[in-house]
């Protein structure tokens, strides 16, 4: 921010020259990443969303937007948002509690190192592998399910959830599976923030007559709030865009990412491939709303810093 | 990276071959006969019968010169395609088969043909559902195999753009170690013994095989090919009873016991049972539901108009309609298109036919119009029925 201000309001010619030279060096450094993002994120996203505005023969149309009025699609949209939000919030709380517990351990101690590296691995554990791991543990023939059956619980929570069959083949079960990568992801992203709390702040609080409660409510939580909410947003986006795990577990709709696949590859309902673009656009809109809400929240949470 | 290199090399190879072929075709134009292996790619792409190659020998020579064949969406355990591909490679050892996206859908075949148009990796031949094919008739090249007459008239396009290859019948597959009382009709599946156990092959608004399970449910519940609403109602009831198992069944889930009841084509249920050995489920039984007409749906063979290996593509079709391969379809439980002619010519494998059972004299197959109407109804009603 300050660099830009200095560049736009040059005080002296010498200063301006220095800044622009430095800025061009910065741009040079950024170029590979920028090109990468444009090629593999911006252009594909633009093409995907853009396809929603055309018919299958290439004429401009807004007719594809009628898909958003379909109650089935609306329900799947709601499902996706609820599953993402619930797993993000539960994951964030559990993850933050783990981080809090880890504060009591030595930063370079055995426990911290093990949990750190385990979290890094497990946060990346997704897709078909994750689905398989859960099928093998709590699927119809899963290890734990069969233990319960042999212990006399022939219809248990895993194989007969809500009298509707196997838990993990339902949207609720998907939430359980998602938590498996949400919690470790929270640990990774939140640990740096929580370990940034300085011991001196606690001492200052104590010297001024504060209690542990005032330390957490007046100092630690306001400081950590922006990081915490940013983590929740990250977890939300992580679940919201998840596809492979859901596709391996759920065969009928349920989530908007699965509806997009259905629209793209259908061999029965022909000619609705372009509605996938509209569904993608709706997903982008949801993410934009969440991001805007987050930045408003962040501004409020960080008011004390100004 | 590797693919890219191969593609480039192939491209160069094709270019050289094409140049050579054009030069040779130029020389040959003065003589009247086309000699084996010298037919140009352009000419092979428009050949509508083996005669254009100077007979089957010429076709084989031209296909050998191409050296490869790209097939798409042919799972090895589907209608015996594993054995069929192996037999082709054994019969024509100079032609390598590249099998792409074995678990893809008919729509994937079309998108692959469009996306890879002009590249050496584009699919040469399709095994494609009728609904998708009808929308993409400009994508396929006409060709008539030598025993064209053996394919019944209703089973082929008079112009030769498509021809039926095989059909299964919609069936119930079940694990007899978990289901003690064999289901006879779809209605039996509403019983409490089936709680959380009945699955279909995907989303009917996406997959033809899953949609066909709904169509048979319609026939089983007083509906017809023109009225599939009772089929949707049946699955709503199945869901309400808690009997619908919302996971995509595969050979692996059938093997492990995660999907104890699967409604799918008979040849797939047969392939996933004891037939598959240790990869299958030894207790897997197959029932064609009684109480209504059976339901089938032929798939179509067709050649990509822009096939990178046009001669090999045509040789594949000739191969598919030989009695040996038609008998392989039959052995998987699928009824091949030339079955009636094979019974008449005594080329059918009688022991296989008696073990699979004679096909029902009349089974229901939705016409293209009925399928379109049914799909529209599924699009509108399915999600709320099962959601």
Detailed description of the structure:
- The complex is a heterodimer of chains A (306) and B (387).
- Helix content of chain A is 71%, strand content 0%.
- With 306 residues, chain A is mostly helical.
- Chain A is globular and about 70 Å long.
- Residues 1-16 of chain A have low confidence and may be disordered.
- By secondary structure, chain B is of the alpha+beta class.
- Chain B is built from 15 helices and 12 strands.
- In chain B, the strands form 4 sheets. In chain B, strands 3, 4, 5 and 11 form a 4-stranded antiparallel β-sheet that branches.
- Classes of the chains: A mainly alpha (306), B alpha+beta (387).
- Chains A and B meet through helix 3 and helix 11 of A and helix 5 and helix 15 of B.
List keywords for this structure.
heterodimer, A: 306 residues, mainly alpha, MetI-like fold, 2 domains, 71% helix, globular, disordered N terminus, B: 387 residues, alpha+beta, four-stranded mixed β-sheet, 12 strands
Summarize the structure.
The complex is a heterodimer of chains A (306) and B (387). By secondary structure, chain A is mainly α.
Element pattern of chain A in H and E: HHHHHHHHHHHH
- Structural class call of chain B reads alpha+beta
Give helix % range of chain A: over 70%
Apparent shape of chain A: globular
Largest β-sheet summary of chain A: none
The average pLDDT value of chain A, as a whole number, equals 85
């Amino acid at each position: 921010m300050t660099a830009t201000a200095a560049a736009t309001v040059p005080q002296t010619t010498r200063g301006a020259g220095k800044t622009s030279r430095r800025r061009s060096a910065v741009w040079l450094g950024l170029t590979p990443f920028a090109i990468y993002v444009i090629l593999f994120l911006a252009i594909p996203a633009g093409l995907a969303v853009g396809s929603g505005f055309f018919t299958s023969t290439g004429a401009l149309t807004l007719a594809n937007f009628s898909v958003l009025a379909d109650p089935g699609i609306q329900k799947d949209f709601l499902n996706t948002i609820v599953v993402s939000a619930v797993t993000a919030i539960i994951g964030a709380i559990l993850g933050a509690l783990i981080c809090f517990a880890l504060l009591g351990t030595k930063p370079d101690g055995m426990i911290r190192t093990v949990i750190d590296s385990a979290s890094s691995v497990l946060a990346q554990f997704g897709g078909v592998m994750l689905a398989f791991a859960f099928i093998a543990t709590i699927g119809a023939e899963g290890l734990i399910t069969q233990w319960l059956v042999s212990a006399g619980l022939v219809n248990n929570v895993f194989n007969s959830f809500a009298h509707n069959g196997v838990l993990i083949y339902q949207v609720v079960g998907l939430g359980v599976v998602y938590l498996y990568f949400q919690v470790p992801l929270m640990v990774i992203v939140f640990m740096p923030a929580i370990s940034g709390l300085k011991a001196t702040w606690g001492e200052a609080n104590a010297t001024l007559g504060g209690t542990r409660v005032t330390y957490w409510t007046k100092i630690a939580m306001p400081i950590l709030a922006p990081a915490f909410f940013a983590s929740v947003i990250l977890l939300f986006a992580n679940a919201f865009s998840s596809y492979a795990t859901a596709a391996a577990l759920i065969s009928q709709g349920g989530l908007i990412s699965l509806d997009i696949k259905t629209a793209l590859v259908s061999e029965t309902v022909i000619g609705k491939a372009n509605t996938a673009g509209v569904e993608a656009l709706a997903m982008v809109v949801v993410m934009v709303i969440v991001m805007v809400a987050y930045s408003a929240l962040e501004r409020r949470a960080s008011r004390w810093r100004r | 990276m590797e693919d890219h290199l191969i593609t480039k090399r192939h491209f160069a190879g094709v270019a050289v071959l094409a140049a050579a072929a054009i030069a040779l075709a130029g020389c040959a134009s003065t003589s009247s006969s086309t000699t084996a292996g010298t037919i140009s790619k352009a000419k092979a792409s428009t050949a509508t019968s083996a005669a254009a190659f100077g007979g089957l020998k010429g076709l084989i020579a031209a296909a050998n010169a191409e050296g490869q064949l790209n097939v798409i969406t042919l799972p090895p355990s589907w209608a015996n395609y594993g054995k069929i591909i192996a037999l082709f490679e054994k019969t024509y050892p100079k032609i390598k088969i590249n099998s792409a996206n074995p678990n893809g859908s008919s729509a994937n075949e079309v998108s692959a043909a469009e996306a890879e148009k002009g590249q050496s990796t584009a699919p040469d031949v399709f095994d494609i559902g009728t609904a998708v094919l009808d929308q993409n008739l400009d994508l396929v090249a006409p060709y008539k195999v030598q025993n064209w007459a053996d394919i019944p008239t209703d089973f082929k396009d008079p112009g030769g753009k498509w021809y039926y290859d095989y059909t299964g019948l919609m069936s119930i597959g079940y694990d007899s170690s978990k289901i003690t009382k064999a289901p006879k009709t779809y209605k039996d599946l509403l019983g409490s013994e089936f709680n959380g156990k009945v699955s279909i092959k995907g989303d009917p608004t996406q997959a033809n095989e899953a949609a066909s399970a709904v169509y048979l449910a319609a026939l089983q519940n007083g509906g017809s090919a023109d009225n599939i609403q009772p089929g949707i109602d049946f699955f709503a009831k199945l869901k309400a009873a808690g009997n619908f198992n919302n996971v995509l069944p595969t050979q692996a889930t059938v093997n492990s016991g995660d999907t104890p009841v699967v409604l799918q084509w008979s040849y797939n249920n047969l392939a996933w049972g004891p037939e598959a050995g240790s990869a299958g489920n030894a207790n897997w039984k197959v029932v064609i539901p009684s109480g209504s007409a059976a339901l089938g749906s032929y798939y179509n063979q067709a050649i990509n108009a822009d096939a990178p290996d046009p001669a090999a593509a045509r040789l594949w079709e000739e191969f598919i309609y030989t009695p040996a391969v038609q008998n392989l379809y039959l052995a998987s439980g699928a009824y091949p298109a030339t079955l009636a002619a094979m019974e008449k010519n005594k080329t059918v494998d009688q022991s296989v036919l008696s073990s699979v059972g004679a096909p029902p004299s009349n089974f229901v197959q939705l016409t293209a119009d009925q399928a379109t109407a049914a799909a529209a109804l599924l699009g509108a009603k399915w999600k709320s029925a099962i959601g």
